[in-house]
Design brief:
CATH class: Alpha Beta
Helix content: 40-55%
Number of domains: 1
Distance between the termini: 21 Å
Radius of gyration: 13 Å
Number of helices: 5
CATH topology: Rossmann fold
Mean pLDDT: 94
Strand content: 15-25%
Low-confidence stretches: none
Shape: globular
Order of helices and strands: EHEHEHEHHE
C-alpha cells in the first residue's frame, strides 16, 4: 500500500503505457499523456498538464526537459518534479519507479530534476 505522501506520476509519450498500468496494480497513481489526451501537445503543455494535477513528469527527453526546467525556474514557475530516464526495458523501468515511489515523498521532488538511474 503506497504512503499518503507518495508522488503521482505523469509518463510522457516515450514511455510505454504498460508502465502506468503496472504501477496502478501496485496501488500507485500513474497516468500517461495518452490517458489525458495530450499526445499532440508540446513539452511546455505536457509539463503544465503534469503540474495542474500535481504530478511528477517522467521522460526520456532529457535535453528538452532540462532546458524547460531552467526556463521555468528563471520565470519563477514551479513543478512537482521531472524524472529523467534512459531507454530501458519496461520491467527495469517499473522496478526503478517502484523504488523511487517507495523512497521519496511528493514534496521531496518539488522543482527537482532527478535521474531514474539513481534508483537501481
Amino acid at each position: 500500500m503506497p504512503r499518503h505522501d507518495c508522488p503521482k506520476l505523469y509518463l510522457d509519450e516515450h514511455l510505454s503505457p504498460r508502465i502506468a498500468i503496472q504501477l496502478r496494480k501496485y496501488g500507485f497513481d500513474a497516468v500517461t499523456l495518452h490517458d489525458r489526451g495530450m499526445l499532440s501537445k508540446d513539452d511546455q503543455e505536457q509539463l503544465a498538464a503534469a503540474v495542474s494535477e500535481r504530478r511528477v513528469l517522467v521522460t526520456c527527453n532529457f535535453r528538452d526537459f532540462v532546458g524547460l526546467n531552467e526556463k521555468w525556474a528563471a520565470e519563477g514557475k514551479h513543478h512537482w518534479g521531472i524524472i529523467l530516464t534512459t531507454e530501458e526495458p519496461t520491467g527495469i523501468l517499473i522496478k526503478r519507479l517502484l523504488k523511487l515511489l517507495n523512497s521519496l515523498s511528493a514534496n521531496k521532488l518539488k522543482n527537482q530534476v532527478r535521474w531514474l538511474n539513481e534508483f537501481k
